[in-house]
Amino acid sequence: MSDISVPIEFQQAVLDSKLYPMNTIYKTIDAGSKYLKKAERGLCEREDDLFDNNESSWEICIRDLDTECGKDVDKYNVHSYEKLSGWLGIELLPTTHGSSITMGKKDPRCRFINIYGMHSMSKLRLTRAMLTKILTFHQVMPAFLEFIYVFGQQDDSADLHFTGFREQVILTDPPDGLIIPKLGRSGKHYQICFNLKGVALKSKNKDDFTLDDWSIRPAAFHHQFDVSNGNTLWLVVKGNQEIQDRFKDLTGKDARAQDKCFDSVEKSFRSSLSAHLLYCYWAMEDWRWCISWLEKAVDKKHRMAVLGPSGVGHAHKTYTPADIQDLQIWEERTRQVIMALESNVDIMSSLVAFYRRLTRDKNFPLRKTCSLDVCSFGNQVQNITADLKMQIKRAEFLIRTISDRRQLVIQHLQSQSAHRAERLGRSMEQEQIFMLVITIVTLIFLPATFVSTFFSTDIIKYQGSESPEGSFSATAMSRWLEVTIPLTAVTCGVAWWARRWKLTKRRENELGLERRKTHWKLICPFSSSITVLPFHEKAPLETKDSFL
User: Fold this and answer.
1) How many Å apart are CA 194 and CA 495, to the nearest integer?
2) Mean pLDDT within 61-68
3) Which of 333, 480, 507, 547 is a good FRET partner for 421, with 20 to 30 A between their CA atoms?
4) pTM higher than the cut 0.85
């Protein structure tokens, strides 16, 4: 094909593709200059985490379908910026005033571009220049950048909860820079971008199924459709090539003809609806099994809280605060599932609502010929959302089950604490009995011990057969009394003074409390029901252990 001239405005946008999204030709009210500058800054900030600078890792998968019923498929994996420009048909021509571009080929009837990384939390396998070249050449709405930011190198899926649906419809008076008839672009088109979330079993543990790893995997979609010529564009961003493989099956040689025909505008539109259904079915798969795994895991790990015997002599589980933490972890996992399912339902509902609004627009040329197709599409999506809502109900019931079992675990903890306190009380009671026995024995032996000690002093001496009656020493007796009586008096006096001081302190506190009550009643006579608590000194701060 000979070189195709394009409008100057489009040429300048392609030449300045690295300035995307500032170089977009069609600017909406909600995407003003401030929004575009903010989007450009965001792209610069995420550049290091989002794009891979390793040249050997670059790969963009492009699949072009151009003839009737998808018989001729042109596919290519792009590994460099220059090859990307060549595949798009961009030819750079030097001029006296700088450079201009011409196009070497016409846009295909359907183009599918897959941008991916090794997984959802790794860098995308292209550069910023390659991405902006694609977005500029197809004049993709700047809002699509928000969906790409979910991906990139990161330690945790911090933005996994992001969801959205954006649309841009131009059915009348398109900008001159978008009208390129020789490329197959009428300028009248609509664009939509949205994201969906699927789930997959990442790894399976053969010994303990509760250790299986299920992963929520996001995917971002951009769709563009020319309502006059039927040209279709798909941009898919995902952590792997799963969506691309499914699209190959949808448009392959063994696929249904109505899903891959592009020889008319109506058939291209129906094929685009089939692709939408493909993505919706992907977002519905495996959620049932993920929730079933959550149910079984929670039931296995905490079933004893409901069915475990609690009577004396039965084997039972000893609960700890770690069991409550484990239940909290399972609850958070279930809530993440619910959020992902609800976001899928909202996006699918927005998708159906968009196409129904489109068929009611009098400027939409396919509103009559394809209204039944949109109705059928809406019914099928409704069946998918009904299934997702059923899974949401299952997950919500699991949340209530986890909450109930957490209360049971707390009750078991309290019961076990009470049982331990009871055993401690019984042990203390036995110790008190032992102390009573010791006291009785002491009282029995104390007189004999006193007598034995007394008679072992020099007050009375028994010196054998010479003095069988013994001898008494008055001096020793007086010295013993002189020491014993004052020492006993001092000991009793100190004990009596300490008791008196404690009682006096208690009376002062009680009198002070009565004075404060009387003073408060004088200030506020209607506050008789208010209890004034005694003041206490501040307790010293306790040192808390840190849990890391």
Assistant:
1) 85
2) 82
3) 547
4) no
